[in-house]
Amino acid sequence: MTAQQRIAFQGMYGAYSDQAARRAFPGATTVPCRTFEGAFGALRDGDVELAVIPIDNTLAGRVADVHHILPDSGVHIVGETFLRINHALVGVPGTKISDIKEIRSHVHALGQCRKIRQELGVNTVVGLDTAGCAKEVADLGDKSIAAIAPVLAAEIYGLDILRTEVEDAAHNTTRFIILARDPLDIANDGAPVVTSFVFRVRNVAAALYKALGGFATNGINMTKLESYMVEGHFTATQFFAEVEAHPEQLGLRHALEELQFFSHEVRILGVYPSHSFRRENDLPAE
After folding, report:
1. CA pair distance 3, 26, nearest whole angstrom
2. How far from the centroid of its chain's Cα atoms is residue 115's Cα?
3. Is the pLDDT at 63 greater than 60, yes or no?
4. pLDDT tens, 103-123?
5. Which residues are catalytic?
6. Span 88-164: which CATH code?
7. pTM of the full predicted structure?
């Protein structure tokens, strides 16, 4: 991976995904995509070399669309990066907070800013991304409509910053995965590694309990386990999991072998370096 690559992200210039991509790859060319599907498609089609996609947030939880798209996307996780999220309430020049009757933002940003929405008691409208909502507010020129968006987006689209740090908690952080068409060939040399994979348990009693038992008995730290329905069946549950280990490590190899006995369709989506944020937790806020 080099800094000069083209990197797809979902949203418009100034979005948090844009900022995360630029922070991870200074000097790279970021390519905005209207939807997550568009970003994945741009990577698959070779229009870009990488994609930076949000996968979960400390306040809003998982980005559900990404968990559904990723397993069958045909691309691979090759890295991760973290970004502290500081939201701002923004409006057209001259707007006062008392003028606001409507706030627009991405569904996750709205979920991260419940307190100010309750304080103002105004209508909320869900948009495709935070920066896009900022541009909508600028284009409309209506003082009654504001957005929750990055400070950078307000600067780009000529909006006033009415209040900063409107998120509900100071720890508000989004984790982004870095995607590529080819998997990363990473050595099992003892360096901190994350392995991401999906699996489906068999529809039998205690299948999940038995499937996960091998990770406990082999001392493998599982940092993430998400479940969601697939193919419209209540009995077809797919799990997205992450562990802090390399598949070639003896413990994880044994755990995955045991997983195969109680599940099917086990697929590794990526093996990649663990970001220092997991241990240091000291990245500056945006």
Report:
1. 6
2. 22
3. yes
4. 999 998 999 999 999 999 999
5. 174, 176
6. 3.40.190.10
7. 0.88
